[in-house]
Amino acid sequence: MTNDLPAALSPAQAAFVERYLGVKVTRKDDAVTALAEQADRAKQAILAMPRGTQLVAHLEKALAAGDAATAQKILTAAQKAAEPKPAILLPTWVDARQQVGEQIAKLETALRAAGWPLTDRIAEFGLAAFTGRRLTQLEVALREFDGAKGDTVTTTADTLRLALTDIEAFASDDEVLGMLDDNPFGATLTLRDTLLRATKNLRSGVDARLAATA
Fold first, then answer.
1. Of the candidates 74, 1, 85, the residue with the CA atom closest to the CA atom of residue 32
2. Where along the chain do its domains lie?
């Protein structure tokens, strides 16, 4: 049962009921006034949305008619749609992984151009294989974090940070990675910098999302 004040009752009668029963009676005008104040605060954000002008017009029409229920529905839907969406982090990693692949391809081409069966053998085996597992694990963790909602945001963030730590340690310390960056075959590689720059940006993205949901 609601405590909405019937239109036939006066404010004095409402006050009597409130005092006698110890309840709070909701006056229609009070609800509309409160919604109008909320709408005024949210107006600029709603106008910035697609079809924002139409939404504001419908909202103002409902308020003018004293239709609190319709106004509340419009305002709630508009506010929800206006909420900032978390940035998707996976594209940052996809871009970095593509750069790694392109750089390794340059070195493979240079190795084949040397015209020596042993350098052909290195290129044939595929230099990207040594990074595969780590890069894939991070990609999986990113997909889970990007798709997380509610309480799972924190748990997937922890998993993602572990995967980032693994990549950072690999990029900083792996001997083979250093050999590829410093190769003597004329192919310019910056694998270490590419990976570390990507992990730094991804960590910033994780921190920003957690701060927004705190």
1. 74
2. 11-82, 90-213
